Amino acid sequence: MSQKLEIGQKAPSFSINNQDGKLTSLQDFAGKWLVLYFYPKDNTPGCTVEATDFSKFSPDFAGLGAVVVGVSPDSEKSHCRFIEKQSLSIELLSDPDHQVAEAYGAWGLKKFMGKEYMGILRSTFSIDPSGNIAYIWPNVKTKGHAEAVLQKIRELQR
């Protein structure tokens, strides 16, 4: 089951494939700030807003020594189509059995039109260069989120 993470604790380790089938691990980002965001589904309205905003601000994140990575249960092929269709400049990781989402507490019970089901809880984690959770955004609203994350990383680096 999903666990509750707290600011200051070590970020859960992971190794899953990115859109190109390349194994990507938490350790790959050692020494950098990592923005790890969990989203439900490629090419859906809210997820598209979030991904295009993170892409738009990726030069600003890079200027702060930060990398933005999205995680969803979608396949590598789906991620490739999403990146191509939306001209995204961020890396997307494929978590089909939602192990990474569960480790980060981003998998849980959702409700839609009176039905309950398990799914991705839209959330974002800022991980510092030492691999610790620096900040957590639960229950993310997509509009303006990328800017808020950018602002928070600026604050955390002061």
Automatic annotation (TrEMBL):
Under which name does UniProt file this protein? Answer: thioredoxin-dependent peroxiredoxin
Q: Name one GO cellular component term.
A: cytoplasm
Instruction: Enumerate the active-site residues.
Output: 47 (cysteine sulfenic acid (-soh) intermediate)
Functional summary from the UniProt entry: Thiol-specific peroxidase that catalyzes the reduction of hydrogen peroxide and organic hydroperoxides to water and alcohols, respectively. Plays a role in cell protection against oxidative stress by detoxifying peroxides and as sensor of hydrogen peroxide-mediated signaling events.
Name the Gene Ontology biological process terms: cell redox homeostasis; cellular response to oxidative stress
Which molecular function GO terms apply here? Answer: thioredoxin peroxidase activity
**Family under the similarity heading:** Belongs to the peroxiredoxin family. BCP/PrxQ subfamily.
- Catalytic reaction list: a hydroperoxide + [thioredoxin]-dithiol = an alcohol + [thioredoxin]-disulfide + H2O
The subunit field of the Swiss-Prot or TrEMBL record says: Monomer.
Say yes or no: keyword Disulfide bond present.
Answer: yes
Which keywords describe this protein according to UniProt?
Answer: Antioxidant, Disulfide bond, Oxidoreductase, Peroxidase, Redox-active center
Taxonomy, superkingdom? Bacteria
Query: What broad class of enzyme is this?
Result: oxidoreductase
Concerning Gene3D superfamilies, the annotation shows: Glutaredoxin
EC number(s) from the headed UniProt entry? 1.11.1.24
Question: Which residues belong to any copy of the Thioredoxin domain?
Answer: 5-158
